[in-house]
Write a structure and sequence with these properties.
single chain; 157 residues; alpha+beta; Beta-Lactamase; 4 helices; 45% helix
Amino acid sequence: MNQGHFIVREREYEEFLGILRKLMVDAFAKVVFLVDKNGTLLASSGDAAGFDTTSLASLAAGNIAATGGLANLIGEKEFSILFHEGERDNMHISVVGERLILVVIFDRRSSVGLVRLRVRKATERLSLVLAEAIAASNDPTGGIEEMTEADIESLFK
C-alpha cells in the first residue's frame, strides 16, 4: 500500500467523526480517538477535555511502532490490536487500514469483548472512508477540474 500523504477533506472528516460517535455510544466508551501513524490526531468523540490529546496521539503511534518491532522479532508483520488494562480505565488500540490508529478508552460500563466487537465493525467503515480519502488525494487533478474560470477569478478579487 502506498504510504504517502493523503488529505482528509471535510466530507471524509465528517464521515470519520460520525463513525467515532457511533462507536463511542455502541461500545459505551468514554472517548474515542482516530490518529494517523505519524501521531497526528485526526478526530475524536467524547469528552477529551481531560486528555493531552497531542501526547496521547503521539504515544499511541509510538506504541504501535514499538509493538511492530516486537512483532517482527517473532515473525509477525504487526500486532493490529493492543489492549491496556488500568485500575479505572482501559484502552483498546487498533490499526485501521495500515494507516490509522483507533484508540478507545472505556471503563467498567463496558467490556473488552463488546469494545472489540464494535471496533471491528467501525474499522470496516473507517477503512472505506480512508480508501476514499487516499483515492481523492491520488487524483492527479486534485479536484481543480471542478473549478470554473469564474471561480478562480473570484478567489483573487
